[in-house]
Specification:
Elements (H helix, E strand, L loop, with lengths): L1 H17 L7 E5 L4 E9 L2 E8 L7 E11 L4 E4 L9 E5 L4 E6 L6
Parallel strand pairs: 1-7
Antiparallel strand pairs: 1-2, 2-3, 3-4, 4-5, 5-6, 6-7
């Protein structure tokens, strides 16, 4: 139990430091409580986000000031920073305030 509390505390501190001073227009929790997504702006089909998450049995991943292609009709966004992996991270924004992340096998964060 003590290990879980320490992990959550460290995760919260890192997330708050990564996002200090930013204007946030949307805050979403990831499914299975693995992290969070903060939406900074939406401009047409581009969405600016900060993402903090911990994939199963891997290190903590923090993506700040990244842009993703966003489809407002399906509420899905796709982030990629590598042309060889065009769908590195898919985000599905649900109506309940949660986000489902799907990391592609080719993603290297």
């Amino acid at each position: 139990m003590k290990k879980v509390i320490i992990t959550v505390t460290i995760f919260t501190m890192l997330a708050s430091l990564a996002f200090a001073g930013d204007k946030i227009i949307g805050h979403h929790d990831l499914s299975d409580n693995r992290g969070l997504v903060r939406v900074k702006s939406i401009d047409g089909t581009k969405i600016a986000v900060d993402i903090v998450y911990k994939p199963d049995n891997r290190r903590l991943i923090i993506l700040t000031d990244v842009y993703a292609n966003f489809n407002p009709y399906t509420q899905k966004a796709v982030y990629s920073d590598d042309r060889f992996c065009p769908d590195a991270l898919e985000m599905k924004f649900q109506k309940n305030g949660k986000v489902i992340l799907k990391e592609a096998a080719c993603a290297e964060f």
